[in-house]
Amino acid sequence: MGAVASLDVVTLRERLGAELFRKVAGPDGPRNRERVHGTPGPRWFAPDSPITRVHGDASMFVGGIRAIMLQSLHPAAMQGVADHSGYRGDMWGRLAQVSTYIAMTTFGAERDALQVIRAVQRAHESVTGTMPDGTPYAASDPHLLGWVHVAEIDSFLLAHDRFGHEPLVGAERDEYVAQTAHVAALLGVTEPPTTEAGLRARLDAYRPELAGTPAARDAISFLVWHPDLPVAARPAYLALVGAAVSLTPEWQRRELGLPHPPVLDEALDRVVGRALGKVSTGAIRWAMASGHAQARELQDARG
């Protein structure tokens, strides 16, 4: 009985992890994986470099959710989402597009990486509008692109520190930021930070511009409570959300209407968040194992 029960738990964990992975990768996930890893040609980053270790780790699921929360705090960025796409229409479709972009620019052949960057730039050309106070915004604005970039990189690095299989240490951390800057500059970010200290300074510089607008709170509420997942997969998803929230400072939680514990409960909040993240990323890591094996086979075939 014990062996059967253990097998059932493993099977359930694999199934739930695989369901979340399929949602984030999108319906074209297998085809994109083959293109990313199987296409011959030079690549920007070595297989075991900091950026490939971070972006290929299951902790990205937590980092991605945390990045969305953080990005939504810039009113112009959130207004663009609300006006031109929104999370209610196709949240998972948007996440799949971001997932493909990150995979292609991190692991893909140079020509494919440049192609996906140009596709994003073309998409940004039509994302323009006006803030409620009459201020114009444009998704192609280098300043706004810079915010989206630093919010992502801070979130990915923080989640990898807490939940990653092999956290970055020493000079690897600056190397990671510099590697992401290479991609960001090609997209249109002006002088993206190339060190961890520079990343922190850039985040601080954006602080006066940030606020939790009604559109931001609505989007994050939808992200948390309406994930469009099978009922059986929702606890695993909520565990990822809980882990992401545990990485979010108290002032950001307050702005977005997220739970923010009293001071005496902060230590417990960190412990619970760490546990949720370890369990949920562990489940996804199991599900990703076969995908990593396929990627290695494609790389070997590529020579």
TrEMBL record:
Task: Quote the InterPro entries the UniProt record gives.
Answer: MPAB/Lcp_cat_dom
Which parts form a coiled-coil structure per UniProt?
A: none
UniProt cross-references to Pfam families, sorted A to Z: MPAB_Lcp_cat
Citing just one GO molecular function, the answer is: oxidoreductase activity
ER-bound oxygenase mpaB/mpaB'/Rubber oxygenase catalytic domain mapped to chain residues = 53-275
Domain of life from the UniProt record: Bacteria
Name it: DUF2236 domain-containing protein
* Biological source species: Nocardioides ganghwensis
